[in-house]
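INFO worker-7 received task bundle
INFO bundle size: 2
INFO processing item 0
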Amino acid sequence: MVCEDPGKANGGVAGIGIICAFTIQAGFSILLSLWTCVLAFFWEPSAESLKYINKMLALINNIQLMTGIALLIAGIISQNQSLDLYHQHVIYDTVSFTGVSFSATLLGVFIAIGSTTPPGDSQDKNLSFFASLLAALISTSFLMTIFVILYFVFVIRFGNALRQWDDKIAGRCYHFDYIASPNSSHPLVDELYLAFTALSSFTVLFVGLPFASPPHGKFWKWVTRQVRTALWSSAPYGVRPWGDSSIRAYIPKILFTFVFFAAMFLTFLQYPLHLYMIIQLRRANPHNAANGGSEDKWDFGQVAALVLILPVVKECIAGYITIED
């Protein structure tokens, strides 16, 4: 069977500007995290260098978090209004870049912890209740929690929508010429793709959540300190400045490091995967433009999404100049 009508065009959730913004920011995160690895393992980076790199990673991650939350809210609202499967798939692949960006930030945090000083909250200030509340509301961990909840809701509803696949009903299918074989079973292959990529993204998000600029609260500080200390004690002997060099202590550290970097590598592989899916989905469904406008039109939303990249570029240039000095 061939999909008769994948639905109308919707530049608000699948516009070229939004996709470019997420793609570029996630690419920046991967490059910066790899740069952190190179500095940590082949040179002796200064604390200031690592500080600026992690600052840039945090900035990219926060911008992508806020944009991702906005896109997920728009997608969930549109799902209530019978958003077609094609656009749900594009939204899913687009917001999944946030998981890639966050894994890059987590990798930078791991290297920074292993290359500078042990974690701790000695510099935390005692804040009033109102100040603590405000600090919690603007923290990265709070934004990440909101994103994870919305992401989970969207994934569940997208999975339910896939089960209603019907080639004869408009919006209940899409063309898959470049992402699956002509004889593939739908929605089975789509559900397998969703399960694999979502599980990988959720794993990284949950593991890295305690490192995402925790709110100023005693309980959360305690939880974060325990997790960071556990990570620090498991860090490889060659990365952190001190530690037990016996074989019995060295093997678990090597195993932990292997698992950690394997998880990061698996998440990084999702970057070309999601990018390929978005490109090929748009390529296979070009007639959407004939059903309600063009998704390649550069309207205010598309331009605004790309303008958000400018602070990232500015911070990267400023960080490079600082490190060079």
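INFO item 0 finished
INFO processing item 1
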Amino acid sequence: MGWVRGVCISLWSISPVLYVYFHGQHASSWVWLYFYIKACTDPNPRTAVNRTHSGFEGYEAMMFFFGFIWGVINLGVMAGYFGLVFSESRYSPRNRPTWFITLKVLFNLFIMLPIALFLVIMPFFGGWIVLPLEQIHAWNHRCDGYPMNVVLDGKGYHGARFAPDVARFYQTGNAQSFYTYDISNSGDTDFWSFHLRTWDVDQSEIPLNMYPTLQQISYNFINNTVTGNCTIPVAPGASNTTIGACVGGSLDLGEPLSFNLTSAVPLNNTANPSSTPSTTTLLRTVDKQWSFGDDAPSLILRDVNPANNQLMDTVLRTAVTKKGDCTQLKVCLAGLPGEQGSVVGGPVMVPLGLMLMRQADYAIACTTPSDD
């Protein structure tokens, strides 16, 4: 058995090199896993991996297929390695020093065994292991650089008939929502309304530039137009309010999604609402696909320079669905740069109502029992 001892001693001596070799050999597996996690938790803007939804599904299937193959190969190789180590231990000289035997046992137990488990498990199961952790991190931190975020919450398959689909608005870093909007129609699916439902804190606690005076938006899907009404005090600090039209425009539901909006949304302390200047804003999604039958809405919406039709600043973007609750989708709100109150102005609120409709559709789809 001298040749076995020779092979084992040689393998023992090159085991660090063996690890480096396998790490390099399977680099493609780790690259596949990285882009899979990125596409699931940070899909916008699109990459070659998820440029189309069907393309991403193919990428996902191939990643798991080859991951399974690499995992089986690694299992065989590492099983062979530990088999040789065991054989070497049986036929090694009995007069080896204790420190050498102890070092070998510790090396294989605490270095080579974790490496083996990693190489066997991660190629196939890595996506299922890492994705939930990254999804939690993205939910908690994707909107950190934005002043506000909103959670679009569909009621799901088992939701009560009277439970609405709602959007809860938060100041980033604050766990308490400021106010809640809901989406509804009067029975005619061509006409929808996105409107203020409840104040979740005392109105005096809401910063002026986050206070929503645009409290009702109507969607007409026959001619793809929108209108909005603002509600403000008749005088600064007064309890009586007045309602007036402050948003109008059109939307194109094609790919990419786009809006042409004219708005004059006053702040809540405006003494003369009619003096609020009217502005026209063009909006367009960065990528063509933004809504899916089997997934939540996913988009980055930017304003458009009318002079050259180029995309400019991000107005809002989706983050991720909540881990364990596909009915909830977080959206980061930026508004238009340099415009006070725009984080809850027409260019933000009009798209949000439409996105809530599509999230409500997905909430039902993702919670429908498989036997239905």
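INFO item 1 finished
INFO post-check item 1: Residues 6-12 have pLDDT under 50 and may be disordered.
INFO post-check item 1: The helical segments are 2-25, 27-41, 53-91, 98-141, 346-367.
INFO worker-7 idle
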